Amino acid sequence: ARVGQLVCKHGSLATPATLVYTRRGGPLCMTPDLLAKMQPTCGVQIDVLQFLAGPDPATLSSFGKGAHAYLALPEGTTLVATNRDPTMYEYGARPNTEAGVYATIHAGGVVASVEKYMSAVAALQPDLYVTLCDEITLPDAKPKRNTTSVTRTLKWLEGCLAAHSAQGVPPHTGALAAVAGAGSAEERARAAIEWRGGGGG
Question: Domains of the chain (ranges plus CATH)?
Fold first, then answer.
């Protein structure tokens, strides 16, 4: 197994690791005092898409202290912002397009463009975030759809990395690229190779 240590501003995270699941930043069935007892190896997951509305990036930006302070996370908590909620599929109601990912969140349907997604990342100020991905939700997706998924995700990866500093994402925040391609080993390999070739080291 591949093992490692991700050193972040607010703490470190061993890999592989189990992250504390949250719904819109709130750990389910866990009070802040219990979360504090999980130190020094606590990693918390939040879904960027859930912060596109109510509160939106503008509200979080006006708060100005990022999700660590907004969610009152204990000192030393590593915050990982992912591109979807692992317990529910926000995708699938409508197809994704070149404009972005269509997702169904608590506020209804939204199209998450690279710009909109990265504005939420900048406002959240996580330790790590996963870049936007054209994820395939159908188990029997056709080869052409897998190819489109990889091509689109690589394009969005470039957009996310370009927006990283332009949108004001803090320098300490690290980006994790999503490997697209669903069940196609060939397309997943292409995604990883082209990502590396594009300078995503």
Answer: 4-197 (3.20.20.105)
